[in-house]
Amino acid sequence: KERGRNRAQVFEPAMSQAQQDHARIAQDLRHALPRDELSVHYQPVIHLPTGQVTGVEALLRWQRGGRSPIPPEVFVPVAEETGLIRPIGAWVLREACRHGQHWHDTLPGAEALSVAVNVSGWQLKDHRFPDTVQQVLRETGFSPASLVLEITESTLVTDADTTSPHIRALRDLGVRISIDDFGTGYSSLAYLRDLPADIVKIDQSFVLRGGSETNKSLIQAILHIGHTLHLDVIAEGIETPHQAQRLHTLGCPHGQGFYYSPPLTPTALEAYLTIQAILKPSKTHK
Ligand code: C2E
Ligand code: MG
Ligand code: MG
Ligand code: MG
Questions:
Q1: Which of 49, 215, 256, 275 is the most buried (most CB within 10 A)?
Q2: Which residue spans adopt a coiled-coil conformation according to this UniProt entry (predicted)?
Q3: Contact 264, 30 (CB under 8 A)
């Protein structure tokens, strides 16, 4: 018993440090929106056969008052636990649609640019979420056909009974649904068949470690599934020209990754799109 207590004493401070950090993040996150510390960056999505930018993915960033940035993988789960994901998620959606509408209006060749927004399971479970999306589209004037909502495969599987009707309501608005991190979430093929989705995103783990024959076959299998179910396919995490070439050769229609561009501030994205439009004046070169 004595030893057990001693062990507990050694272990406790480390635990409480982690808990303190967590509590601090939760506390600071509460002020992030009113203090203007959140921003949205955009990563281009490329049509691999032509190299043209067909869309962007909105990715949330938090600059916590004068400290080093915290990645979304750390603070999004805290936002989910605290319920802050709903106001923050609605804010991201509004920003993304506002920016998207601005680019449609002002950038030559960007009239059809799609904007993908990541949606947490906690947002999707809320029966008011489709109304929120409709309201944001109305406010910003952004076309539902240009909006994509990304939902991870694991979220779709976990809360299917609650979320499926909401996904259908969103698709009735004309919004497209994308299955994020596909290949990591254990969904059955029957489930996938019945799911109202438009796009699958091949998880970056298949692309980053894509050199092996096994990975090549898995990517081909996902492409076949996508083709069979009439889903568009986007490969995530393309970091090298070699990976880009390989995916293109396998017939993957779309891709995104650091090789093309990291996530950019809205201003930097505008410059990127403008340069792309000058370099590739809407001509295809298959
Ligand atoms: P995700 O939706 O799968 O986003 C892709 C992540 O991969 C992003 O990380 C992106 O910056 C990163 N990435 C892009 N290209 C490459 C590449 O070539 N190589 C590598 N290694 N990584 C690449 P990020 O921005 O840190 O976001 C991480 C995750 O946080 C996202 O994964 C998404 O699940 C979540 N997230 C980000 N923004 C939001 C948001 O607004 N709402 C919600 N609910 N989740 C978000
Ligand atoms: Mg995503
Ligand atoms: Mg992903
Ligand atoms: Mg991810």
A1: 256
A2: none
A3: no
